[in-house]
Amino acid sequence: MKPSPIKDEISFEDFEKLDIRVGTIVTVTEVEKSRKLMKLTVDFGDHTRSILSGIKQERSEPQEIEGKQALFILNLPPRNMAGELSEGMLFDIGYADGITPCLAGPEIPVPNGSRAG
User: Fold this and answer.
1) Helix or strand or coil: residue 14?
2) Class of 13-103 in CATH
3) How far from the centroid of its chain's Cα atoms is residue 9's Cα?
4) 3-state class of 33 per DSSP?
5) Minimal CA–CA distance to 42: which of 80, 71, 7?
6) 64: three-class secondary structure by DSSP
7) Within the chain, where are the H helices?
8) Which of 3, 23, 70, 96 has its Cβ near the most Cβ atoms within 10 Å?
9) Which of 74, 62, 75 is CA-nearest to residue 103?
């Protein structure tokens, strides 16, 4: 893999605007109207959210991530995709670079809803 160029600099204040939190992926289900998207039900401790992610073609067994903790961006506006509402974004590493995807998450279990940064 050849690393891609580093993106333009942003300010620390811009980075601090992102609400990045740990959540546990409770279920992974098919999105019927999509060839790419899977619907993740994610526990953030005080609430759950539905988050759509384009992992259907990235992983041979998308359900293998059920029960795992990962990082999510929570303060993006809700987005309607393939007839479903997505309430955040999953951090998934590797697919864009042509390597086997993996979740970005804590190295040890932490409480759901813990903030990154």
Assistant:
1) helix
2) mainly beta
3) 23
4) coil
5) 71
6) helix
7) 12-16
8) 23
9) 62
Q: Which of 89, 63, 65 is nearest to 78 (CA)?
A: 89
Residue 2 phi, psi dihedral angles, 5° rounding: -105, 120
Task: Supply the pLDDT for residue 117.
Answer: 83
Q: How far is CA 38 from the centre of its chain?
A: 11
pTM of the predicted protein model: 0.92
Residue 14 has φ and ψ, to the nearest 5°, of: -65, -45
**Element of type H or E holding 27:** strand 20-30
Give the pair of three-digit tokens for residue 109: 């279990």
Domains of the chain: which residue ranges? 13-103
Cα–Cα distance, 56 to 98 (Å, whole number): 15
Q: How far apart are CA 26 and CA 66, in angstroms?
A: 5
DSSP-based three-state secondary structure for 70: strand
Residue pLDDT, tens place only, 30-78: 999 999 999 999 999 999 999 999 999 888 899 999 999 999 999 999 9
Q: Which two tokens stand for residue 54?
A: 């384009």
